[in-house]
Amino acid sequence: MTLAFLLVFPWIAPYQALAVNILVLGLYALGFNLLFGYTGLLSFGHAAFLGSGAYGCGIAIARYGLHPALALAAGTLLATLIAAVMGALAIRTRGIYFAMTTLALSMCVYYAFYQAEAFTGGENGLRGINVPALALPGFSLNLLDPVVKYYAALAVVGVAVWLFSRLLSSPFGAALEAIRENEGRAQACGYDARRMKLVAFVISGALCGLAGGLQAIHLSIVPIETMHYATSGQAVMMALLGGMGTFFGPFVGAATFALLQDGLATVTSHWQLVVGAIFIAFVLFLPLGIWGEVLARLRRAGW
């Protein structure tokens, strides 16, 4: 159902470029939701993975002229490696200490990329990520056409979503939910909770890194704000708006956030204040999120 909706989404969204942005943000929120919604670990550092994926992909294209597919793989690999290091340090803590540790480590990554001006462009960001066409065996895709760009991105996101669904339906996915519900009991059942949390952290970082690479290709630039802690807050907001621990919720949350931002930014320069108030209202009155509330009502109706 998720992929069926995404196939027709460019014709529902106000314009195709916004649909691409929602698709990328949805994948970013999906990666975050694996750690937060399914494992129960609140991270404030996921901007490090989105940003490192974007910079890794962008540098590979702008500085070294790699094929976009190879550049996307390079950005995802960089984000995965950073997630492995951050995860190995962060999972030694719990609760609010875990959240604060991820925030501190994320800011370390932010300043490392900020100082590497020769590669990242520093405060000006990385520019020159020009991918007018995607050369594939036998044909070429015109990425200047937003519809073509959307479906090219959807092919990548579709594979990631399918792998994510296989992961959740596997014994590993069930073990993550057991850790979320009661880590002590999960350990008593023989699960290595620390190792599983680390694997979940790394997979979450890889998905966010893939989203970052797609964002770099989509925007043709990587602003340094991509790695700022405020971007980590957006992942939390989208997961809660859509529905924490639901499969389709991250995309609903991403669409809600992006549509609010796009619509309100044309009305007022203080759109963040309005979005923040709406977010607080959702937390107070719809704690399950939009999609989570829909699923709860369907269950109560016997569907």
Which key phrases capture this entry?
303 residues, mainly alpha, two-stranded antiparallel ribbon, ABC_transp_permease, Branched-chain amino acid ABC transporter permease, cell membrane
- Total helices: the number is 14
Outline the biggest β-sheet: 2 strands, antiparallel
Rg is 19 Å
The tally of beta strands, per DSSP, is 2
Shape field: globular
Mean pLDDT equals 92
**Unreliable spans:** none
User: How much of the polypeptide forms β-strand, as a percent range?
Assistant: under 5%
> How many angstroms separate the termini?
16 Å
Helix/strand-derived category reads mainly alpha
| String of helices and strands | HHHHHHEEHHHHHHHH
**Which strand order does the major sheet show?**
1-2
Estimate the helix proportion, in percent: over 70%
Overview of the structural elements:
It is a multi-pass membrane protein. Its main location: membrane. Keywords: Cell membrane, Membrane, Transmembrane, Transmembrane helix. It is found in: Cell membrane. This is Branched-chain amino acid ABC transporter permease. With 303 residues, the chain is mainly α. It contains 14 helices and 2 strands, in the order ααααααββαααααααα. It has a two-stranded antiparallel sheet. A hairpin with a 2-residue loop joins strand 1 and strand 2. Helix 2 packs parallel to helix 7, helix 2 packs antiparallel against helix 10 and helix 3 runs antiparallel to helix 4. The model has no long low-confidence stretch (mean pLDDT 92).
